[in-house]
């Protein structure tokens, strides 16, 4: 099972590459104007080239196929997921940057390269990527053996750590060695909690929030099953999104998302971050369709429209209504 879960990083990477190569990412509005970072495309292409050389033929074929069949709905999804997380991150950092050092911990980082722009823009930041050992080893080799990444990645403020997220005590012990518990800390789980068992995920959330008491932010992005409470308070039985997703993942990949059908809607997903009675926590959550309609400017929507012809707007709505972006601040 571990290996199957690790391979989900290749899905995330190929989706990111598709969105980059079609021009969805970077967004001028965010990555270039707000973040002032212009090398976004180059760092992604560079990493992609190196990882492809390190993969077996089968994985290369899988990635190439998904790049070639990069549907607009998928690219919108990748764009929204990336942009929404980056936006929350930048809002928080710009409000806390005067406090001195900020630390970011990306739990289940996979091949995500967000640390490069962030570390180069914010000199008062340290960044820790955590994933299973094979993923961390590969990422470490690709970044460490590259002259290009040697120049763009401030290595003194970046760490790659191997750990199994389902062992919350090991995660805490590891982090205690390399972080400062008194500094503002941001945790990111982007499509990572969904692969953990319910109890393991809850222990991870509770123990990290109660260890990093001073100030913190947790950003989490995940699918939700739907089919729970409908808008009128009754079960929305017609919504079979989660059930179909679960059976597809089981049949085609033998992959499980243990909490997909437990945290089916925004309220139940948010409840996981409110389990500690003595922590004052402000939890906000939106689905990504709401994010698209409310947070993306008309100009940006127009730009996206020009990239690929999207006639499956209803499909986009259904899909993005089943992904959530949560930010919990304490
Ligand atoms: N967060 C990255 C992104 O969005 O691009 C990668 C997402 S990928 C779908 C899920 C990642 O979570 C994989 O890299 C996987 O290895 C990692 N992961 C899932 N369960 C884990 C666990 N128990 N311990 C460590 N890493 C885990």
The overall pLDDT average reads: 92
**What ligand species are in this complex?**
S-adenosylmethionine
Number of distinct beta strands: 7
What's the multimeric state? single chain
Residues in helices, as a percent range: 40-55%
Shape: globular
- Tally the helices: what do you get? 15
Provide the structure class.
alpha/beta
| Ends distance | 34 Å
GO biological process, one term: protein-containing complex assembly
Pfam families: LCM (PF04072)
Family: Belongs to the methyltransferase superfamily. LCMT family.
Function: Methylates the carboxyl group of the C-terminal leucine residue of protein phosphatase 2A catalytic subunits to form alpha-leucine ester residues.
Question: Would you give an account of this structure?
Answer:
- The protein has 15 helices and seven strands.
- The protein is of the alpha/beta class and about 325 residues long.
- It has one domain (about 1-330): Vaccinia Virus protein VP39 (Rossmann fold, 3-Layer(aba) Sandwich).
- Strands 3-2-1-4-5-7-6 form a seven-stranded mixed β-sheet.
- Helix 10 (about 200-210) links the parallel strand 4 (about 185-190) and strand 5 (about 215-225).
- It is globular, with a radius of gyration of 19 Å.
- Bound molecules: S-adenosylmethionine.
- S-adenosylmethionine (SAM) binds near residues 6, 109 and 165.
- S-adenosylmethionine (SAM) binds near residues 109, 112, 135 and 165.
């Amino acid at each position: 099972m571990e290996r199957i879960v690790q391979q989900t990083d290749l899905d995330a990477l190929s989706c990111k590459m598709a969105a980059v190569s079609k021009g969805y990412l970077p967004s001028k509005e965010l990555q270039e104007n707000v973040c002032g970072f212009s090398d976004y495309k180059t760092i992604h292409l560079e990493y992609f080239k190196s990882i492809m050389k390190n993969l077996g033929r089968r994985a290369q074929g899988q990635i190439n196929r998904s790049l070639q069949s990069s549907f607009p709905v998928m690219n919108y999804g990748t764009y929204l997921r990336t942009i929404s997380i980056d936006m929350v991150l930048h809002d928080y950092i710009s409000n806390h940057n005067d406090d001195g050092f900020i630390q970011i911990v990306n739990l289940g980082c996979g091949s995500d390269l967000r640390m490069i722009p962030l570390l180069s823009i914010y000199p008062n930041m340290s960044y820790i990527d955590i994933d299973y050992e094979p993923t961390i080893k590969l990422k470490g080799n690709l970044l460490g053996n590259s002259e290009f990444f040697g120049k763009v990645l401030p290595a003194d403020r970046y760490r790659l750590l191997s750990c199994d997220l389902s062992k919350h005590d090991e995660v805490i012990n590891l982090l205690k060695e390399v972080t400062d518990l008194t500094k503002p800390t941001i945790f990111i789980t982007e499509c990572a909690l969904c692969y953990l068992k319910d109890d393991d995920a809850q222990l991870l959330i509770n123990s990290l929030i109660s260890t990093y008491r001073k100030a913190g932010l947790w950003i989490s992005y995940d699918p939700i099953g739907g089919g729970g409470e409908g808008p009128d308070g009754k079960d929305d039985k017609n919504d079979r999104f989660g059930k179909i997703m679960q059976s597809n993942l089981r049949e085609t990949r033998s992959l499980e998302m243990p909490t997909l059908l437990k945290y089916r809607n925004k309220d139940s997903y948010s409840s996981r971050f409110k389990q500690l009675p003595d922590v004052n926590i402000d939890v906000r959550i939106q689905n990504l369709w709401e994010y698209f309609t409310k947070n993306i400017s008309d100009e940006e929507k127009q730009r996206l429209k020009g990239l690929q012809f999207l006639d499956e707007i209803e499909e986009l709505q259904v899909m993005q209504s089943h992904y959530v972006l949560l930010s919990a601040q304490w």
